[in-house]
Design a protein that fits this description.
224 residues; alpha+beta; 6-stranded antiparallel β-sheet; 3-stranded antiparallel β-sheet; elongated; Late embryogenesis abundant protein LEA-2 subgroup domain-containing protein
Amino acid sequence: MAKTSQHPAGERDPLLPSSAAAASPPPYLDPHPADSYAVLLVPVRRRLRRGGRCVGPGIAALFLLALAGFLLWPADPDVSLARLRLAHVSVAARPAVAVTISAALKVRVRNPDFFALDYSRLDVDIGYRGARLGRVTSGGGRVRARAVSYVDADLQLDGIRVVKDAIYLLEDLARGSVPFDAVVEVAGHLHLFLLSVPVKGRISCVVHVNPHNQTIVHQDCYPE
C-alpha cells in the first residue's frame, strides 16, 4: 500500500512563488508609474535675453557719455601765421653788429571748442639762432565757439645788438638769407559752464629774409 506524504498546512511547494512574491514587481522595474513624472523647463534663454536687454542700454549710455566728453573736452586753440609783411630789415656791422626789423603780422586763431575763448594776450617773439631779439604783445579778445579770428601785430626792433652769433649773422647776410625765428603764442581761458579752463596755442616759424631786396625768401611753420 502506497504511502502519501502530506505537508503541513503552513508549508507550500518551494517551486511555486508565494502570493507576496508574485505581487511585488521585479527589481529591474521602476515601482512608480510613468504618469508620476513631472518635467521642469528652466527658461535659460529668457534670462539671457533679459540680461542682454539690460546690458545694451548701459553700453549705449557709456558710448554717449564718452562721445560727449570727447566733444566737450577743452582743446587748445589752433594758431597759424596768416600773413607776414616785411617793411624793413637791415643788419649793421659797425660799430657793433645790430639788427633792425619792422614787420606786420596777421595771426589766425581758430577755436575748435563748443565754448567761447577769451584770450588775454598774443605774444610774438623774434629771435636769431635761438636767442631772442625782441617781443611784441597784442591785446586780448574773444573768439566765438568753433570760429576763427584774426589778430594784427606790428613788430618793431630798432638796433638790437647781436653779440653771441654776430659772425654767423654776417655770414648769412653775405649769402642773402638770414633765418629769423618767430614764435607766436596765444593764452586765454575757456569758460566751460561754471569752470574756467586755461588754454594756450603756440606756433613756431623760421622766416628766411633777404636784407638786400627786403623780401622773404621762404618760411616754415609748425605748431607746438
